[in-house]
Amino acid sequence: MTRPTLLALGASLPVLLPVDALAQDADRHLLTGAEVVTMQGGWTEPQALDILIEDGRIAEIGPDLTAEGAEEIDLSGHVITPGLVDGHWHMWNTIARGMARSERGGFSQTMGPLAKVWTPEASALSVKLGMALAVNSGITWVNNWAHNTVSPAHADAEVAAMRDSGVRGRFSYGYPQAAGEGEMMDLADLRATAEDWESGRIGLGVSLRGPDRSEPEVWQTEITTARELGLPVTFHMGGSEDAAAQHNAQSLDEEGMLGEDIHVVHMTSAPRADLETLAESGSPLIISPWTEMQVGYGVPNPALMQAAGLDMAVSVDNTVLAGQINMFEVMRLTADLGDGFSQAQQSLTDATVFDWASRQGAASVQAPEGVGVLQIGGPADLIAVDTESLNTQPSGSMDFLLTHAADPEDVSFVMIGGEVHKQGGALTRVDMRALTREAAQMLDEIKAAAADG
Ligand SMILES: [Zn+2]
Question: Most buried residue, 8, 113, 126, 338, by most Cβ within 10 Å?
């Protein structure tokens, strides 16, 4: 047995790997020493298993594997799980962290003027920063909900930045923030984008204003067009009490415009009957508990959503409100809100919520086969969480550790499509300090342009 390189996890690595090292990365890896939660069929208890990765895919999962010529990565003291899945993230505004309030007022008053002067370069840089934050937090598949698609150039810039990142996900083509309720999104460019779409790690979808935020002719035409193009659709609905009072789940149902391809976000204030309408139609629900509270929608009740029979996914939404990109906090809050509303411990189990952030979440938002689970033939998108850190050792059970104890700093290792994105707790493909400085400078430029406008 030949194992040419033994990369100990704790070994210090250069922040930027040379190009030839990256090329070698994509080849064969043997992950050893860890416990593994595969999530095949739902939550699975951790088992001591090795994972062999070839050509970006999982070739073998089993105890004590050997693989001649493969690069061995020792992940002792870790749990390997599927990479986390984020169902709804407006990546275009990642550089605007904290700009949810200013002397102008709250979110809309502060972000509205910035959104109008937003450039393709700012969108691209935001996506780049967002993808670094995603990897840091263990997210390996993200639905980039592009709701400031000011022009085709903005869309192209976001797609290019997504592809450059090496992270897997979907670009959900959207509309300009300043679009009026009677104004159609750029359906011609959506069609052109769909026709020219190159397969790869990034899929294409559509994000709309939907019935809460656009006129019936607009949302009906937009949904019909997306369906003609075979693209999954997502929109916000039922967040605030005013929005929920419109009961647009019923309007959509009457039009035949719910189903597995229609992915609804929020429903924070919606009554159970409307949740059940979505569930019966097959439409999943994506929630973002932190930002739903921050923007004043109310407090989501994930236990009620589960009881209504919904297929669920969770999300970070954005940095503007949330500040952090921390899927562990999203999972913790989701689980604990369930128990709080139910007034019963573990009514919404930690295992269930981890499922929403991995296997079930991926299925809900129609991510490609194999995303959110570890299975032979599936993409090698996985993370290793330190189970012997200050945060995690000791922890009562693995599902508790993953949803309540661990933090992004405990994600030691991230692999996407067989390529290493984080190792020894450090991002391997991004010069973080240069990126954050560039982001701060870009935000200053946008703010100056908005002030001039
Ligand atoms: Zn949103």
Answer: 126
Q: Is residue 22 predicted with pLDDT exceeding 60? A: no
Q: pLDDT confidence of 24, banded at 50, 70, 90?
A: very low
CATH of domain 84-364: 3.20.20.140
Torsional class of 283: left (φ above 0), alpha (ψ -120 to 50), beta (otherwise): beta
- Residue type present at position 152: P
Q: Which residues of 299-322 are buried (b: 16+ CB within 10 A; e: fewer)?
A: ebbbbbbbbbebbbbbbbbbbbbb
Q: Is 271 in contact with 257 (CB distance < 8 Å)?
A: no
Q: Is residue 389 within 8 Å of 401, Cβ to Cβ?
A: no
30-74: pLDDT as tens digits: 999 999 999 999 999 999 999 999 999 999 999 999 999 999 999
pLDDT interval class at 346 (50, 70, 90): confident
Q: Tell me, in angstroms, the distance from the centre of ligand 1 to residue 87's CA.
A: 10
Rounded distance from Cα 21 to ligand 1 centre (Å): 38
Phi/psi for 387 (5° steps) reads -100, 10
Q: What's the start-to-end Cα distance of the chain, in Å?
A: 67
Mean pLDDT of 298-317: 97
State the distance from the centre of ligand 1 to the C-alpha of 409, rounded, in angstroms.
Answer: 26
CA–CA dist 234, 255 (Å, integer):
16
The Å distance, Cα 316 to ligand 1 centre, comes to 9
Q: Report the pLDDT value the prediction gives residue 424, as an integer from 0 to 100.
A: 97
The Cα 143–Cα 162 span in angstroms is: 11
Residue 36 and residue 49 in contact, taking contact as beta carbons nearer than 8 Å: yes
Nearest-angstrom CA–CA distance, 249 and 100: 28
Domain ranges of the chain: 6-83+372-429, 84-364
Q: How far apart are CA 155 and CA 66, in angstroms?
A: 45
- Centre of ligand 1 from the C-alpha of residue 144, in Å: 10
Domain 6-83+372-429 has CATH 2.30.40.10: yes
pLDDT of residue 334: 98
Amino acid in the structure at residue 238: G
